[in-house]
Every structure is written in C-alpha cells, then in structure tokens.
Records
---
Amino acid sequence: MGIRIVALLALLTLQPAFAQDAKPTQQSIRELLAVMQSHNMVDNMLAQMDATWGPMMKQSLAGRQPTEREQQIVDDAHAKIQALLREQLQWQNFEPMMIHVYQNSFSQKDVDAMKAFYSSPTGQQVIAKMPLVMQQTMQAMQQHMQSLIPQIQEIKQDMTQQLKAEREASGAAAAPPPAASSPKPQ
C-alpha cells in the first residue's frame, strides 16, 4: 500500500513535466497562427510567385519580341498559372497542414510561449517586417545562386565529358575484336 502512495505521489509530481511536453491543441495552434497572421503569408507568397512567373514566361521567348499571337499564348498561360495558384494556395488548404506540422514539431508550452511573444509589440513588429525579410532573403539567395551557375555549368560539362569518355571506353572494351579477315577463296 505504501508503494502505491509513493508511486502516485511520484506521478503527480512528474505530471507538470509531462504536461509541458504535451502536444498542442488544434485550437491553441489556430490561435497562434492567427496572432502570427499566417493567412497573410499565403497572400504574400502568391504575390511573390506571380511576380516571378511573369519574367519566367517572357524568358521562354528567348529574348525576342513576341508576335501578337505568341504574346496572347504567354498571357493565357500566365493567367492559367495565376488561377491555379490562387485556387490551390488558399489559407483553408494550408491551415490543416500547418496544424499538423505544429503539433508534430512543438509542445503546448512552445505554442503558448510563441503566442505570448507574437502577441507582444515586438512580436507584432517581427510579423510586420517578416515579408520584407523574406523578400530580401529570396533576392539575396537568387543573386548568390546566379554567381554559382557558371561553376555548376562547369561541373556539369565536366561530368558530361567524363560520361562520354566512360561510354567510349566501355564501348570499346565491350565490342568484340574485329575478326581477322581471311582471303576469300576464288
């Protein structure tokens, strides 16, 4: 009987530690996502993607001035992409996924602490400035990647040459030796 009481007391004293590691509730995550203005993130992402698709579509013309019909084709494709993105990238589609990810990544204690931070004036400033931070980060990453393209192309070219040499070497080794030509009897 004494052991049961000690075990029960031990469980009661450990319960707060277990509770801190509990998975967050869907409601607490919804509240966090609302405080973080996560729905705006989707809208910002759509705007950035739209800004990216226009120039990419024009690149498909290889720098030449499109005919009126070609421009119509590009414009139609751009409109279809915009419609597809707007249909698929809606907050209602993302929220269940985000809830699942947050439940698998954070404890209730983490979610509560994030809600407290993002509800604070500093947290709200972070939220307000985050789209600009993300935009500048993406621009910096694109510039950095542009500087890597020549190196990547060089590696790719080297790989292509090595593969060609390997195929030629393997092909020569795999080919049967030429048959000795014997004079044809006449």
Note: Confidence is low (pLDDT under 50) at residues 5-19.
---
Amino acid sequence: MIEIIRYNLLIALEAIVQNRLRAFLTSLGIIFGVASVIAMLAIGKGAEQQILEQMKLLGTNNIIIQPVVEQEEGKADDDDNKPQNKRYTPGLTLDDLAQLENVIPTIKMSTPEIIGDVLFVRNGIKKTGKMIGVDTDYFNISATELESGTLFSEVNYEQSMSVCVIGKNVKTKFFAGANPIGKRVKCGPLWFTVVGVLKERGGANSSMRHLGIRDFDMDIYIPATTFLLRYKNRNQLTARDIKSANSENNNNEENADVQKKSVNYHQIDRMILHVEESAFIASTADVASRLLQRRHNTVVDFEVIIPELLLKQEQRTKRIFNIVLSSIASISLLVGGIGIMNIMFASVVERYKEIGTRMAIGARKLDIKIQFLTEALVISLSGGFAGVFLGILFSYLIEQATEIKTLVSLMSIIISFGVSISVGLVFGIFPAIKAAEQEPADVLRYE
C-alpha cells in the first residue's frame, strides 16, 4: 500500500510540475484562507492576553468607588433663579472606607487612593509624575510585587511618615545605575526616603485608558495619611481657601459659581474594595452604594465601578468580533476548496486518455482515485504551508503597522493546517471518484 501511495504521489507531483501556473493559481485560495485565519486568530489571542494583563493591573474581584460631579435633580420648569437648598455631602473620605470595611463582611481588603501631580527632583533631574497615597493593602489588591526593598508596613510609624515606594521607571529615570534603597527623592517641597522598588507593571496604553489605568511605573507611593498631612487634605477648609473663594466671588460672581460647582471636595480620589469571592461582587457593590448614599445625605456624588464586569463584557465583545472575522476569513478556504475541485474536474477531462491508458494496462479504480486525490492533497498542503508562513508575516505586519497586539499560537497553526488538509480531501474526492468511474474504452476514444 505504501508503494502504491508513493507511486501515485510521484505521478501527482509530475502533473503539478507540468502545470505549475495552474497549480499555483489553484492554491491561492488555500494560501490566503489559511493566512487570514491565522492572522485573525492571532489578533484574538493578542486581545485575550491584553485583557488578562488589564485584569492583573486592576486586580481580580475588585470594586472601585470614585467621586463624580454632584448630580442635580428637579423639575424642568423650576425657576433657575430661585434659591435651592442643597444637601450637604462630605464627599468620599477615609471614614467612608473604614465604615464600609467594618459593616460589609465580604470585603477582605480595602485601600484609598489619593492622587496628586507632583514634580520629582533628584540630582538636577526633574519630571512631573503621580504621587499616590495608599494603604499597604493596595499592593496586595493590585498584585504588585517588590523588586527590592520593603513596603510601608515593614517600617515603624515615625519612619513611615517620610518614606516612599517607587515604580520601575522612577528608578530608571532618577537612579540609573544605582541602588535607590535608602536614598532620597524630592517630591514637590518635601524629601522622601526610598524603601522599596516595584517590579515593572506597564499600563496606560490606548486600550486601558477607559479603565482608568495609568502608567504605574512612573508613580511614587506614600502612606495615605502622610499625603493628607503633608500635602493636601480637601476635607479640611483653610484660611487660604476662604480667602481665595472670596476673591473669586468679588471679581466675577457668575464665573465663581461655576468654579464652586466644579471644586473637588472629596478627601480621597477613589477607594478600592477587594471581595474574596467573585459571586459576592455585585451584592457587595450594591450594599456599598446604599451605605454611601446614606452617609452622603442621599447625594449621589460617587460612582461604583466593577472592572471585572467591564473586562468580561469587553472580552465577550472581542470574542464575537474575532469569531466574525475568522468566519469571514474561512470563506477564503471554502472558495479555495471550490477552486481545487473545479480545476481537478477540468484536469480529469483533459487527462481522459491518460486515465484510459492506465486502466487498460491494469490500474484499478482505487489507483485512479488515489492518484487524483493525492494531487488535490499536494496542492492544498503546499498552499497550507505557504499560508502558515504568510499568516505569521501578516500578524507581524499588523502589529507593527496598527499597534494591535497579535499572538500566533501553535493551536491556530494546527487548526488552519488541519482545515487546509480537510479542504483538499473533501473537494478532491469528487473529481477522483469521477475519474475512477470512467470506462477505459470510452475515455480512450475521447477527443
């Protein structure tokens, strides 16, 4: 049997070589079909990995609560000039966070985030970056790992008032070629001692901005209480704030009214709640929202975001999109298979005398079937090999030209190559059967 297959393979290769151009044009459908499927699956795999990276950055099973502009309600026909009594709200505070953690048992960890733009200075180098006030739970919630040094919890209270943990890019920018642990960096008007360096995390690309992911590697982290004491505590009114507000009112009442509405009165910029079981995320978010509304005098000046649900929705959307694209790309394989069948039917008619001669000298119908089926398989296999190479090339070019992350997996290559073999078998079997069913006397007389 092996000798029969080898002999028919040689005949098939000889026929393909004699009609090289026709064989190449026939295989184009398979080539571009396989290449398209590999490229589309690479885009889908890249999107999936990107979503997993986003989930790692945001942390799993987290609930994010952040401040928003106070919402106004009322009848549309109310007199705009009529004075209205607004309910007092303290905004998001550390007390809110402590109350949530004490009341809701499903919250296992929590942390505030207080964000400020600060000028970092060291050894004549300066750069604007983010100063982040957090608790030590922040690093566990966000699955952030230390490259070197320690965290806030591993130093005593007096020391923690003037220490910081820096991102990877801060180390590269300000401590190139040196160990930053124990050295100082100026953040605004104050100096902080570096006690830890975080591993590289990434972030801040276009697909992550809508999730509030910044460039974590350029951040400097300090204890939240230190931030409130030494920088800005928006929950406390100072003489300077009163003087500034009076000046604005005297200069331009209308403009001052607009500014007053846009003043950020929240003590913290957001809080992160970590829920141990994902099944409790929705219920925990609902209870947290109700509790905060009660504490804020029913004023809705915050929003509750569940990143996991957003990411799952995004993943579902991208999966549907990639299925559609892959289905469209698979049509090329179908068209290529039809092309193979069409050419093979034409080849059978052209080679009637060859078929009749082989059958007259003893070839069986099985031999004729194997001959033409092998020829179809060789065309589809050669197209599959070329398509795999072209698909990998397309994936690389797409990533370089559009900055869309692509990832070619072994499984996508196996699937595409397997489909090309199936196409050759399915669409080559019918012409092979037609060739084998011919009567030797009839085909020898065919002109």
Note: Residues 206-210, 253-261 have pLDDT under 50 and may be disordered.
---
Amino acid sequence: MLVRSAPDEEIASAGPLTTSPRTTGPRVRWHRGYARLLVLSDVIVLIWVFSTAHIAWAVTVGADLETGSPYDAGPIVVSLVLMTLWLAALSIAGTREPIVLGAGPDEYKRIVTASMMWFALMAFAGYMIRFEVPRSYVAVSVAFGLVLLMLSRWSWRQWLVVRRQRGEMSSRTLVVGTRGAVERIIGVVGVTSHFGYRLVGVCVPSAGDGSESVAGLPIVGALDDVVSVIADGFADTVLVTSTDATHADMVRRLGWDLEPYDVDIIVAPSLANVAGPRVHIRPVAGLPLLHVEEPSYRGATRWGKSLFDRAGSMALLIVGLPIFLATAVAIKITSPGPVFYRQERVGRDGRVFRMIKFRSMVVDADQMLTDLEADSGNEVMFKMRDDPRVTRVGRFIRRTSIDELPQLLNVLKGDMSLVGPRPPLLSEFSGYGTDARRRLLVRPGMTGLWQVSGRSNLDWEETVRLDLYYVENWSLIGDLLILWKTLRAVISSEGAY
C-alpha cells in the first residue's frame, strides 16, 4: 500500500485519526436491561405457545396416528428448535432496538415480519426434511404466538411509557440549531415524553448575547461547544435541527468529533408533517436524498377507507344499540326538548351536511353563545370547561363521548368517516386559511389525531397541524391505532368537557 505523507498542519486540520474507547453511559445500561426483560418475556410467551400447540397436537393425534405422539422426544426437540429460531428471528428483525421502543407501530411491524420470516423458514424446512405435524399445531403456534407476542410487547410498552413520563429510561437530549428551529423542535418533541427524548439543554449560535434559555430549556453553549458539553456528560443524544447554521459539513464534523462517546446523533429535516411511509431515502454520490410520495387520499385507497367506515359504523351501531336506547330515555326524562341535536357542518370538499349528536345542552343553547367566553385557548373552536348550557345528563355523555355516537349514522350515510379531521361549523370555516382548508380533502371524522393527542386542551395551531398531518399521511393501520387510542382517551376522560 502506498501511503502519502501530509504536512503536520493538514493532518491537524483533518481531525483525529484515532479515537479513544467508547464510553458506556446510562442510556446503554437501561436499554440493555430492558432488552433482557424483553428476551425473558419472549421466552416465557413462546414456551406457553408451544406447550399449547402440543396440547392441540395431542387432541388431534387420534385422527392421524402416523404423526406419532406429541410427547415423544422428536416432536419436543423440534419445538425447542422452532422456539429458538423464532427468538433469533425477533432479534434479527430488530424488535428490541432502542429506536422502536416506546412509541409508534414500528415495533409491532417488526414482530410481524420476524414471525412471518420464521413461519416461512419452518414451512421450507418441514418440506425439505419431510417432517409432518398436524395443521392444528401449526395454526396454534403461529396465530397464538403472534397474538401473545403483540400483547406482551404492548404491556411492556405501557410500562415503559409510564417510566418515561417520570423522566426515567429516556435519552438526555441536547438540541442544536438556531433559536427559531430549536423552539419548533421543543414545541413538538418536548411534549411527547413517550418517545424517550428528554430535552435537557440547547446549543445555539451567539450563545453569549444575554439570553439564558430557549423555550424553557437552558442554553449550555454555542454551536462550537457541543463536543465539550457532551464530554462533560451533560447528554447522551444530540438532536440537530436543519438550518443554514447546521449545514452538512458541520453535522459530518460533529459526528467525527463525537465518535469517542456513546452518543446518538439525530438530524431533524426541515421537511415537516410527512410520515415515514411517504419518505424514502436514496443515496446519490454520498448525498442522502429524501423522496416524498404524494398523499394517498385519492383513488382505490379512498374506496377502501369508505368500505371500512361503512362496515365499522354498522357493527358499532348494532353493538351500541342498548347504549343508544338508555341515553335517549335519560335525555328525554331529565330535560325538555328533542333527544337529538342536528347542526350544519362543513364536510369533504366544502360540502355542507347536518351532523347528528345526542343533545347535551338546553334547547336555546345557540342563542346563549354570545354571552359566554371560551376558556380553552383555542381561537377558532369554542370550548368552555364549565359551560352553563350543558345539562346534567349532558355532562356525563360529553365526558364519556356518548353524545358523539349518533354520528355513526353520518358515517353510514357517507358524510363522515370513523377517523378524520373535526368537521367545522360554517362560522369556523369562513375563518380558515389556506393550510386549514386542506383538512377538507378527506371526510371529517368522529375521532381524529388531535382528539387522541389532547382533545379539547389543544390550541388552534396545534389542532390544525395534527389534522394536516393526518390528511397527508393517513393509512388504514393508522386509523386502527387512532380508534384504539380513542377508546383509551374516552375511558380516561382526559381533556373532554
């Protein structure tokens, strides 16, 4: 190998060629401990699964004596091998990596991928060695195993979220960038503790201009001080915002300088409100280019959503019929007036429809509105915690969201969706800007992303941001997750009034 010597000053300017041993911080320690808990949990689940599968095999063995007894040494060894391979597939698929723990559906997707990988391998190996087992054994092990693994991981995730809400098992994160970019990041990441980023400080240009904090976080240095701040053990994660001050060369140099430390570097692109399924990274000559696909709210996907809404609303109407009848009787005998309340709302593409709800207020509530003052901090949508117009029964059905159930009829009719942006009043729609009007590209929903992210406690700007995120990135899986979170929000009654 031919090695070209370089002047001393060139070598010095290029940065260190060797790094000191990487340190192991508290972030790595908690993750390793949590990963061991997940491994132990997966082992217990799979032992339960294969034990149940052997029982199913024993039940069916009488119908097919050629398969032998499930309690022979051979089948038991096969089950142990299959369990080991399933555990290995869960590790290979990265189901215990820090990036997927605590938030988002990625962990569940990886579990499904690992399980399908294991099933394909099992089927191929069984064909090659001609080892036959009853279909009941396969069906129980695959279906029961997948369900139990998902439930187990969901339970651990709830435990992790609670710990992170207490400030534990999270990454101490240093935010780097200009003041404006840092404030935007803090406004989004700082209120979502379950993702595991605990913001502890910021580094901004011109840190010595007299300001001591940005959006409540202390300024701990300038952009050139990031390495020294990390070296002091202040944080274990660096979140870099995308601005002119944090250009590509700066981020690359920062990565080199932080190599001796066990630190994660996260870059927040300037591209906002676009979800992962629409974003694809394509490296071109070492430059990662983000390809953004068009939103999927047109074409066949819209018909699929419509079919899901109609079938789901019909099923919920049938299941909820006793609640419908009990609520109607309670409203009728406690307050004079009709059981239902109909109001004109603006739907998809600006079309007006009449939304139906259980009446939760006195009959002349609309005429009393001008004498009341909202207290929710939302400049567009009127919200009041102790609204005197709400009846005694109305307070209960609003807190439990039972007053929204008649909207299932709007969903069945096609005016609304189970999940979507909130349908605005005509008066609210007249004050919409260009961004807010994009909420009308899809049918309005009974529930939506903002309802499960704070319900009535959100301000107008945050409500629009969440609704636009939904419109741009909706998917059937996303709708199912929102429906599940809605059920949890209704049970807790958080933010509802």
Note: The mean pLDDT is 77.
---
Amino acid sequence: MLFYRKSSSVVIKSSFFKTQLWNHIFKYPTPLNLNYFWNFGSLAGICLAIQLFTGIFLNMYYVSDASMAFNSVEYIMREVNYGWVFRYIHANGASIFFLVVYIHIGRALYFRSYTSSLFLWYSGIAIYALMMATAFLGYVLPWGQMSFWGATVITGILGALPVIGEFLVVWIWGDSNVSMITLYRFLVLHYVLAFAIVGLSLLHLIFLHKSGSTRPFKSNYYIEYIPFYPNFITKDSIGFLALALIFSFFVCFNPNDLGHPDNYIMANSLVTPAHIVPEWYFLPLYAVLRSIESKVLGVAVMGAIILSVALIPLYDNLKIDNPNARTITKIIFWIWVATWIALGFFGSQPLQYPYITVQRSLVCFYFVVISFFISFYNYIDKQTLKILINTK
C-alpha cells in the first residue's frame, strides 16, 4: 500500500510536469504575425546551452594556476581529442551569443516590446549585465597577454570609486596585483555567474509567458493567435540552422578573427602590449572609459549609458497602434545604433589623434541622441499620430 501511494505521487508529479511543458511550450499562444526578429530569444537560449556544455568540458582540463593556465589551454588545443573544436566553439560562441543578445535587445527597443512587462525587461537587462561580467571573467582565464593586461586595466578602473575603490580592487584581486589568486577567483566566479544566467533566463521566460509575446505592430487588436508548436518551432529551427552556419564558418575557417593575436602570448607582467584591446562586445563601453581622462567620470558616464537604456520603459509608456506614427522615432533609433557601432570601431583604434577626438565627440553625441530618444519619444509619436489623423 505504501508503495502504491509513493508510485501514485510520482505519476501525479510526472503528469503535472508534462502538462506544464505542453501548455508553456507546445500550446503557448503566439501572435500569427511574428517575424524572424522574434527568433533571437530562443537563439540566445541555444547559445547559452552551447556555452555551458563546452565550458564544462574545457574545465575538465583547465588548470587555474598562473604558471600552468596558458599551457593547459594549449594542451586542450593540441593534445585533447577534439579539444580545439570545443575551445573554438566556446571562444567564438561568446561573441555570437552577444551578437544575438544585442539584436534581441535592439528588436525590443525598435518594436517597443518593453511596454508589455517591466519585469520582463529588467530581467533581460540583468541577464545582459551578468553576461558582461561572465564574459570578462572568462576572457581572463586563458592567461595570455591581452587577458592579463585587460584584467589589470579594467579592474584597476574600480579603484577610481570614492571611499571603497581601493578596497574593492584588492578584494577582487585577492592580492596586491593580478596574480594566481585572482585567476582562481575569476574561474570560480565565471562558473557561478554562468549558472546564475541560467536561473535568470528561466525567470525571464516565466515573465514572458505571463505577459505574452508582443506583436511587431499592434495595428489589429483581433489578430489571430496560434500554438507555438509546430509553427514557430519550425521558424526557430530555420534560425538555428543559420546560427549553425555562422558557428561553422568561424570555428572551421576563421577561428581567431574575433580574438586578438597577443592573447596567444603567455602573460608577462613586465611587458605591456602596445595597444590593449578587449573583445568587440566591450569596445563601445571601453571607448567611453578611455575617452575620458578622469577615471571617476569615465565610470560614471559608462554607468549612465547602461542606466539610460534600462530606464527607457519608465519614460516611454505610450502604446501606439499605428506604425506610420513612428517614422521619426525609427530614424532616431537607427542613428542611435549607428553611434553605438561607431563607438565600438573607434574603441578598437589606437589612443591617438584623431581617434581620441572622434571618440569624445561620439560620446557627447550619444548622450544627445539618447536624451532626445527618451525625453521626446512620447511627444513625437503623439504629434505624428495627430497629423496622420487630421490628414485622414
């Protein structure tokens, strides 16, 4: 009798799990007019799974010792069966992951998907912040020249914070400088934050299913909803195949194009690289930091840039159903994107004239654009909508 009760509870739990899986994945109601820009959420989940799987494999052979870390990576590349594949997938996967997330965030801004749920938006921003931290920690682990000096420069910037700055830097390093203790701490944090991203991603998915997927343009209130399976699983599969082609191109033909050649030189604290360049997804913020001479002001401006994007839903709460009313704000959005890309490009250039002058100009212009983008978003769309109504 006891066995019967125990088995019944297992059956009930299994049935509950299957029901939830069926309702929230296969039967999830999805607007019929979603385009391929709505694929990038699921593609980001696939990228996260790839990074976790390859990261666990690499950690089996990696040695978090300053004298052995670089050689352990070389051992993975040269001696472990298919180790080079896992290493290149993990290294290039970080770049592709960020590309997918940037497009995902851009789509939310362009189509104003953030108006559906603040919890959904801010959980996504939290995931992005954790991604930045995790990627930085992972970039240090190979212990090449660019890894070592990137860690020294970026963590040293925290010393500019008032009162707690110097204490914070020493606490992160675990020593008076970047050393073996720092490397071990970064490995542990890299691992922990990766699984924190998984938890936040599940929370993000819960908020999505609670608020429902937004539509490209809400021009029809009675638009048809269809089950996620098999319609959008098929569409996501096409996106996954495109992602697999991009992965294959970089891993098999250009595995080092997204990295820096100096990172194939073992870290040396006595030799400073001529030009310290982080990964491309850090470049826009890196351009802001180095274009401002004051470290405190540089950190403040960088924080303001991230905060300005995070706060957009609090300023823009107007729901417009006519896509033609957004012509001007679309133009502002693309100018904003172009400015961000330009900051990334000049962030990769040497810190000399005329690059530094252009960088500072772009930082000032960025704040003009983003301020205009936030402050007058509602006003511009309201006026455009009035003109459209009056012309009719």
Note: DSSP finds 15 helices and two strands in the chain.
